[in-house]
Amino acid sequence: MVQSVLGSLVLGYRPLWNAARKLAGVQLYVHGQGSQRVDAAHLLRTLQELWSAGSPPLLLSPRSQQLLLDLLQHAPRGAPWIEVPDQALATPAVRDAAQKAHGRGLRLVWRGPFHNLPDADTARLFDNSLLQLSGSDALQTLAAAASAERPSPLIAGQMYDNVASRALLTLCLDKGAALAVAGWPMEDVLHSLRHQPLSPAHEVVQKLLKAIDDDQSIDRLEHILGEDPLLAYRFLVYTNSAALGLRTGVDSLRRGLVMMGYGSLSRWLMELLPHASMEPDLRPIRTAMVLRARLTEQLLQAGPSTELRGEIYLCGLFSQLDELLHEPLGTILRRLPLSDRIVNASALRTGAYAPSLELACALESEDAGRIRQLCEAHEMAIEDVNRALLRVLSELSVERPAAR
Q: What pLDDT was estimated at residue 150?
């Protein structure tokens, strides 16, 4: 039965980020497959089975009115948050179902434009809102922040969508006490940091040093090293440099760790630490890149081969290095003795790893048509894709912010 429900829908996702620039939850887009009706109750049971206490909170965003109605009617207390679009409430059946769901203790999220908030009777049905900022909303918010006399229009404790600039991001999370923002303005954040060379994250370098001090396994060190695309890249550049003097090329994190040894690795990290980045706005970008890498690895189903899994992971992890280093991706990757499979998939979108990488990228949106197209073109079962996505999302860790 689980196979049938995951085969009857198309999923996509978007991270939700809190003021600490850490994962606050995940928005899960849920699309039906053509005229096929999704078993909403079964979907909820499937999510309950896959999720643990440590998994990120979920915001379910159904993309059809029928699916929304079914979720409102079948979701029990304690189910994931359910997004209810403002337009859908104009339908009496949806409003009635939302009222009954609220009465059962279901957590509902109102989604609509920031300049057209719900009336008091409607607002009481919802635990939270996902407020969509328009261009004029953004301008008014920025103008209010620049004026000592104008109060901010932002509403504390809400979630915000369409946060397109770093300045607006700061106002929402740091000044406006937003619960979260949906997505992250990667392009504007990186543009604002363009005049300074980006470095590996200080927190990841420290974490790796502590793992070495604790004499943890190679598997654990490889996992931590893979939590930062810049650190992983700098590591491979160093292990292949004349300074280290290794006789053979190092084409994987694991091989580099084995050949370098804990002592040399620790010394290299200590030299790196004073120059490591402590910029919090880079954390969501780094986390999103790691998430893409995990998805790419899961989608290809490499099996028990540790070496092959590591290679596929690097394919996803390095796929956006051009955004960080401001150079063509092919130029960056060809500095290393990486497998042609990694270079071809990441830089050219060709070869054996390309389908999994392309699909991992497509899942970062609500474009169900693109996801279906890729599944059909590469003969990948939508059920397997959905299962891989849910597995990766359920394994994400969320640090709950301390009470203020």
A: 86
Which residues touch 189 (CB under 8 Å, ≥6 apart)? 166, 169, 281, 282, 285
Mean pLDDT of the chain: 93
217-265 pLDDT, tens digit per residue, is 999 999 999 999 999 999 999 999 877 777 778 999 999 999 998 999 9
Neighbours of 333 (CB within 10 A): 21
Question: Which residues, 6 or more positions from 78, have their beta carbon under 8 angstroms from its beta carbon?
Answer: 105
How much is the pTM?
A: 0.94
Residue by residue, DSSP assigns 236-273 as HHHHTSTTTT-SS---SHHHHHHHHHHHHHHHHHHHHG
User: What are the φ and ψ backbone dihedral angles of 252, each rounded to 5 degrees?
Assistant: -150, 155
Cα–Cα dist 337/239, whole Å:
11
Whether residue 32 contacts residue 9, with contact meaning beta carbons closer than 8 Å, is answered with yes
Residue 400 has pLDDT above 70, yes or no: no
Domains in the chain, start-ordered, CATH in brackets? 2-183 (3.20.20.450), 187-290+307-338 (1.10.3210.10)
- Lookup: tokens for 352: 């054996």
Nearest by Cα to 47 from 233, 255, 56: 56
Tell how strand 23-32 and strand 9-17 pair up.
antiparallel
